[in-house]
């Protein structure tokens, strides 16, 4: 079973080391970044399962990082928890308004930390399951209204319709009983069109996922 990945963003090295040790003993893989800029570089290659982030940090504070992080992982739900000593109502409300899932106040006990992480990871699983169900439901409803392809969304439909129409036109011209040079030429045209079709479908699925996440209030 793959380890759950926790991204810890905190410029207070001593505090960060304590949190890292706790999480590693519980079987988590921990990515550590001293500020938001370093953290954004990390998420380009590895998508964490949950984020723990301080607020007051040099170069990029927690609020700015939260906004940038949400943009970077807009197609998936990753729980985001602020871990900070600043527990004023205004700061809590600002973080929640930006999309934070929870707000943990330093100093925090091992039990509190692990409970909060477990709770948010379980909720993330539930959200992903609901998202999958809604995605299938939306795709089925769209397919009923559009007999050319099962996944079309908004003004992006041309990303799918155009290559699909071209592919069907080429297929109609191919003589399946012959291996003529004409057939070879037609077949050579199919690859770039199928790639465009695949990219169009992927973009439409991503668009649908984002719309569903907005409906669920996860982004």
Give a structural overview.
The protein is of the alpha/beta class. It has 2 domains: 125 residues, 3-Layer(aba) Sandwich (Rossmann fold); 71 residues. Strand 1, helix 1 and strand 2 form a beta-alpha-beta unit. About 8% of the residues have low confidence.
The termini sit apart by 28 Å
Number of helices: 7
* H-E string: EHEHEHEHEHHH
Oligomer: single chain
Supply Rg: 23 Å
Assign the CATH superfamily of the largest domain. Answer: Response regulator
Count of the separate structural domains: 2
**Which segments are poorly predicted (pLDDT under 50) over 5 or more consecutive residues?**
147-163
What's the β-strand tally?
5
Sheet having the most strands: 5 strands, parallel
* Top CATH class of the largest domain: Alpha Beta
> What is the overall silhouette?
globular
Structural class: alpha/beta
Helicity range of the residues?
55-70%
Output the CATH topology of the largest domain: Rossmann fold
The CATH level-2 architecture of the largest domain is identified as 3-Layer(aba) Sandwich
The strand order across the widest sheet is 2-1-3-4-5
State which percent range the strand residues make up: 5-15%
- Quote the average pLDDT: 75
